[in-house]
Specification:
alpha+beta, single chain, binds magnesium ion, 140 residues, binds guanosine-5'-diphosphate, four-stranded antiparallel sheet
Length: 140
């Protein structure tokens, strides 16, 4: 299995509760390595652009409002099968449906305030990483 990279966001519900370190524990325990990380206050334009794929969904405005409600931590994670592995560690979108031991089951507040974002495919990961990081900000 080749080493792969994925893109992660620790969302405002987690920064607000000061549990970014707790989230990181799940990531590192899964064998994923943080190779880039920064804390940001997203602008409305950045959040709308990042979630453009959801722009016609009924929850889009709420989602953008939530994502700019406080700081986020954006990360590049590296490891074997990183995209699928991080989705597994995150758990289902709705914490009520997430498996035991996942970030969302253990830490998330709601289907919207669900603590983390992770890319859904290797191609998306490349685009999402490039949306937030320059090549020289990633140190593997
Ligand atoms: P993900 O890939 O598991 O993060 O889920 P999606 O790509 O389907 O949705 C993106 C984000 O939109 C989710 O992580 C949630 O924060 C939010 N979201 C998804 N579905 C809903 C919903 O039904 N209601 C609300 N308010 N937010 C949602
Ligand atoms: Mg998604």
């Amino acid at each position: 299995m080749a080493i792969e990279r994925t893109f992660s966001i620790i969302k405002p519900d987690a920064t607000r509760r000061n549990i970014t370190g707790k989230v990181l524990t799940y990531i590192e325990a899964a064998g994923l390595r943080v190779v880039a990380q920064k804390r940001l206050q997203l602008t409305k334009e950045q959040a709308e652009g990042f979630y453009a794929v959801h722009k016609d969904r009924p929850f889009f405005n709420d989602l953008v409002g939530f994502m700019i409600s406080g700081p986020v931590v954006v990360q590049v994670l590296e490891g074997e099968n990183a995209v699928a592995k991080y989705r597994e560690v995150m758990g289902a979108t709705n914490p009520a449906n997430a498996a035991e031991g996942t970030i969302r089951k253990d830490l998330a507040e709601s289907i919207e305030a669900n603590s983390v974002h992770g890319s859904d495919a290797p191609e998306t990961a490349k685009e999402e990483i490039a949306y937030f990081f320059k090549d020289d900000e990633i140190v593997g």
